[in-house]
Task: structure prediction
Amino acid sequence: MLRAKSAQLISEAKALIPGGVNSPARAWGSVGGDPLFFKRASGSRIWDVDDNELIDYVCSWGPMILGHAHPAVIDAAIDAARLGTSFGAPTELEVEMARRVVDAVSSIEVVRFVNSGTEATMSALRLARAKTGRDKILKFNGGYHGHEDALLVEAGSGLANQGIASSAGVHPDYAAATLVADYNNVDSVRALLEANKGEVAAVIVEPIGGNMGVVTPVAGFLEGLRDLTTEHGVLLIFDEVISGFRVALGGAQSAYGVTPDITCLGKIVGGGFPVGAYGASAEIMSEVAPLGPMYQAGTLSGNPVAMAAGIATIDELSKSGVYEGLQAKTDKLADGVLDVFRKSGVPAVINRACGLMTVFFTNNEVTDMDSASATDREAFGAFFHGMVDNGVYLPPSQFEAWFVSTAHTDADIDLTLDRVAKSLPS
Ligand SMILES: *Cc1c(COP(=O)(O)O)cnc(C)c1O
Result:
């Protein structure tokens, strides 16, 4: 596989941009080597600057659920752009977009659009603090919610209730106000809420874990969080930045039938443009300025190009049979990959949800960050490089989801399975 142009560009980029990338997940740090540079994508395919064609299972980390450059989305964005890309004043498109989100997501009566998932979670935390008058938040080990200071905290083992910053530069007061529980472990949440009675504003959780690889909630986990938070007067925040509009039009909350107090959206909601959103009941959202005392703003928030792309995306996703089709494709891919591995004696488990999956190289179930970390990441690295060499682009980390789009055809998946067979780690 020729990579001369990508190699040239990364060497230029490294002098100009930290590590040559504008988001660290794009670097190939955990698998080794330098990233490919891409120039074009359409449907399930993506082309690098050296004209290699790959089947794409990154899909921009989720937003491209309809595949790349979907005509309805591109037309809507171009039409909107011709009329002006931002006014810094209200538009009809924002109303139309808000109505779609409110109709789709049952816990949301009122929604505020922002420009990224990070902004959505950061604002949701501020809202929870404003509403409850409490300072602490509880998150889960292995839960990623964007790069807001209070959320860049994970648990070192044995330090689960102390808050260890996992980024340099996070103010220690933020880290100290963040409690960390274990995913799929309601008892770990109960213990922390009891030890911090009356101090916790919110529990924030990915209702389907997507940032330790895919980890689905065990039966009773989300229900347990709902009961415990209600009992303790704590707001429950579902970070549906990945799961929103992916596992169902109504997100994981509709798939699992558990209703959070505040919902965060991102990725798909912008149809490939920078959009995030947070929403809740009208009562909770009345805290938000200009109605209430919690300030949150954005120059480009709700801009017409992004709103138009989001509307077009949601309209496509609202057509009948979309999620059944996406689930069937995910199952075909996941079952097929498992089958190839079994026949070759490669130990692997696959966690999946609609349009999402992760292959872990292990014989054990993966249900939380500890079990995800205990998998064979060298095998993943070898598999990743084999797949890229064979024309399949995967997320360059064990702890990420593969994203399946509605544009992936059965033929794409069959081709992918052939390539999996050629890319097995030895
Ligand atoms: C990607 C992601 C975020 C952050 O969104 P950005 O748009 O990258 O800021 C937050 N939460 C979850 C669950 C995510 O996957």
In short: Residues 155-162 have pLDDT under 50 and may be disordered. Residues 322-344 form the longest helix (23 residues). The first strand starts at residue 38 and ends at 42.
